[in-house]
Amino acid sequence: MNRIPWDKILTFTPLDLGKLVVSALVILFVNKIQLVNDRISALLIALPLTSLIALIWMQYAGQSPARLANHAEGTFWFVLPTLPMFLILPWMLRNGWGFWIALAANCLLTIGFFWLTVVLLRKFGIDLMPK
C-alpha cells in the first residue's frame, strides 16, 4: 500500500463541508425514519446510499473510471464480511448479551471476517489489500 498522504486527507475545503452536511443528513434522515418504522429504516440502510454518495463525490472530484470501478468492486467484496454481524448481533441481543459487549464482539468478529475475506480472495487472484 502506498504511503498515505495525510496532508491531503486532513485538509478541508468548503466543498468538503458540503459533502459532510449531505452525508450526515442521509444518516440523520434514516435515523429519524427508524423512530417511526424500523423496517423502512433498515431497508434504507441496506441500500448502498453511502457508497453511491461516495462514488458521486469521487466522480465530481474527477477520479478516473478505473478508480471508480475499483472502489465499487472493493465495496462489494468488503460488504460480504459485514453480513454475519447482522445475524449474530440480533441473536446476541435476544439472548441476554448487553448492547455494548455484543457490539464490541461483533466488531472483533467483523475484523476477523475482513481479514479472512482478504486472505481467501488472494487465493483467487483478487487482492483487496495490495502490499
Stretches with pLDDT under 50, minimum 5 residues: none
Task: Tell me the Rg in angstroms.
Answer: 18 Å
Count of helical regions:
7
* Strand residue content: under 5%
Distance between termini? 5 Å
Which word captures the global form?
Answer: globular
Q: Mean pLDDT, nearest integer? A: 90
Proportion in helices: over 70%
Order of helices and strands: HHHHHHH
Count of individual domains: 2
Number of beta strands: 0
Strand count, sense and barrel status of the largest sheet are: none
Structural class: mainly alpha
What does this protein structure show overall?
With 131 residues, the chain is mostly helical. The chain has helices at residues 6-9, 14-36, 38-46, 49-60, 65-79, 85-94, 99-122. It folds into two domains: 1-47, no CATH class; 65-131, no CATH class. Helix 2 (14-36) runs antiparallel to helix 3 (38-46), helix 4 (49-60) packs antiparallel against helix 5 and helix 6 (85-94) packs antiparallel against helix 7. It is globular and about 50 Å long.
